[in-house]
Amino acid sequence: MHLDKSCCRLKKKSREKQYHTDFMSQKRRLQDYDINPCLVESNASRKCLEVNQSDKDMCAIYFLKYKNCRKFWHGIMMQRRQDGIKPHMPIAEERKRILASLEGAPY
């Protein structure tokens, strides 16, 4: 009995391609301001690392701002989920209104 293994190779390549596609779409989503409320803080911390040759001590304040941003919006998202509001994460325009009502970012 002779088994044709070409189908298995095709499936493996298909899975690898799907993983790559999923990874790239995840990366794109993280760069979308409507999805990622902390995009500015994320980019600032990344840029700080580039400028300071990956010296994390020099960028601690940027990391803290990013962490506080994530905590704040995670809390908002969880509250909206409990209240049955969709989307759970407010879109960029709505987030601007929320921050304006708080008179600026609390982080």
TrEMBL record:
It comes from the Eukaryota. Its main location: mitochondrion. GO terms for biological process: mitochondrial respiratory chain complex assembly. It is found in: Mitochondrion intermembrane space. SUPFAM superfamilies: Cysteine alpha-hairpin motif. Keywords: Disulfide bond, Mitochondrion. One of its GO terms (cellular component) is mitochondrial intermembrane space. Belongs to the CHCHD7 family. This is Coiled-coil-helix-coiled-coil-helix domain-containing protein 7. The gene is CHCHD7.
